[in-house]
User: Fold this.
Amino acid sequence: MMGSANGNGDVMTVESQRGSLGKGRRFAILGGGPGGLAAAAFIQQRGLGDVVLYERSDRLGGLQHSLEFDGRHFDVGTFLYSEDHGLLQAFPHLRE
Assistant:
Protein backbone atom coordinates (compact mmCIF):
# COMPACT_ATOMS: atom_id res chain seq x y z
CA MET A 1 0.00 0.00 0.00
CA MET A 2 1.12 3.52 -0.70
CA GLY A 3 -0.21 6.74 0.77
CA SER A 4 0.00 10.47 0.28
CA ALA A 5 -1.29 13.66 1.88
CA ASN A 6 -0.01 17.20 2.00
CA GLY A 7 -1.74 18.44 5.16
CA ASN A 8 -3.44 21.32 3.32
CA GLY A 9 -6.92 19.85 3.56
CA ASP A 10 -6.45 17.74 0.46
CA VAL A 11 -7.70 14.19 0.47
CA MET A 12 -5.17 11.54 1.45
CA THR A 13 -5.13 8.48 -0.77
CA VAL A 14 -3.87 5.04 0.08
CA GLU A 15 -3.39 2.79 -2.91
CA SER A 16 -2.97 -0.94 -3.22
CA GLN A 17 -2.24 -2.56 -6.52
CA ARG A 18 -2.62 -6.26 -6.88
CA GLY A 19 -2.71 -8.01 -10.19
CA SER A 20 -4.18 -10.97 -11.88
CA LEU A 21 -7.18 -12.18 -9.86
CA GLY A 22 -8.86 -8.77 -9.91
CA LYS A 23 -9.04 -8.78 -13.71
CA GLY A 24 -8.73 -5.01 -13.87
CA ARG A 25 -11.34 -4.20 -11.23
CA ARG A 26 -10.78 -0.98 -9.32
CA PHE A 27 -12.31 -0.15 -5.95
CA ALA A 28 -12.63 3.27 -4.31
CA ILE A 29 -13.07 3.24 -0.54
CA LEU A 30 -14.28 6.49 1.03
CA GLY A 31 -12.99 6.96 4.55
CA GLY A 32 -10.00 5.61 6.42
CA GLY A 33 -11.87 4.66 9.56
CA PRO A 34 -12.11 1.09 10.84
CA GLY A 35 -14.74 0.13 8.24
CA GLY A 36 -12.85 1.60 5.30
CA LEU A 37 -9.58 0.02 6.38
CA ALA A 38 -11.27 -3.36 6.84
CA ALA A 39 -12.90 -3.15 3.40
CA ALA A 40 -9.59 -2.22 1.74
CA ALA A 41 -7.79 -5.07 3.51
CA PHE A 42 -10.54 -7.54 2.54
CA ILE A 43 -10.30 -6.60 -1.14
CA GLN A 44 -6.50 -6.61 -1.16
CA GLN A 45 -6.05 -9.89 0.73
CA ARG A 46 -8.39 -11.69 -1.64
CA GLY A 47 -6.79 -10.23 -4.76
CA LEU A 48 -10.11 -8.84 -5.97
CA GLY A 49 -8.60 -5.79 -7.65
CA ASP A 50 -6.84 -2.49 -7.11
CA VAL A 51 -7.89 -0.39 -4.12
CA VAL A 52 -7.73 3.36 -3.62
CA LEU A 53 -8.73 4.52 -0.15
CA TYR A 54 -9.64 8.22 0.20
CA GLU A 55 -9.36 9.96 3.57
CA ARG A 56 -9.94 13.68 4.07
CA SER A 57 -7.86 14.03 7.22
CA ASP A 58 -4.09 13.72 7.45
CA ARG A 59 -4.31 10.42 9.34
CA LEU A 60 -6.15 7.12 9.21
CA GLY A 61 -8.42 5.82 11.97
CA GLY A 62 -11.61 7.81 11.54
CA LEU A 63 -12.90 9.22 14.80
CA GLN A 64 -10.52 7.00 16.78
CA HIS A 65 -7.45 8.99 17.76
CA SER A 66 -5.25 10.13 20.61
CA LEU A 67 -4.64 13.60 21.87
CA GLU A 68 -1.89 14.99 24.03
CA PHE A 69 -2.59 17.32 26.93
CA ASP A 70 -0.18 18.41 29.62
CA GLY A 71 2.35 15.76 28.56
CA ARG A 72 -0.15 12.90 28.73
CA HIS A 73 -1.84 10.99 25.94
CA PHE A 74 -5.57 10.28 25.91
CA ASP A 75 -7.44 7.93 23.59
CA VAL A 76 -10.61 9.45 22.18
CA GLY A 77 -13.06 7.18 20.44
CA THR A 78 -16.41 7.53 18.79
CA PHE A 79 -18.52 9.12 21.49
CA LEU A 80 -21.19 11.78 21.69
CA TYR A 81 -20.91 14.22 24.56
CA SER A 82 -23.38 16.79 25.80
CA GLU A 83 -22.22 20.41 25.82
CA ASP A 84 -21.70 20.34 29.59
CA HIS A 85 -19.67 17.11 29.66
CA GLY A 86 -16.45 17.45 31.66
CA LEU A 87 -14.31 16.18 28.77
CA LEU A 88 -15.44 19.07 26.55
CA GLN A 89 -14.76 21.53 29.34
CA ALA A 90 -11.26 20.11 29.87
CA PHE A 91 -10.50 19.95 26.12
CA PRO A 92 -12.47 22.78 24.46
CA HIS A 93 -10.85 22.17 21.04
CA LEU A 94 -12.81 18.89 20.83
CA ARG A 95 -15.94 20.96 20.09
CA GLU A 96 -14.62 21.71 16.61
Observations:
- The chain has a mean pLDDT of 77.
- Strands lie at 2-4, 12-16, 26-30, 50-55, 65-69, 72-76.
- The radius of gyration is 17 Å.
- The chain is about 20% helix and 30% strand.
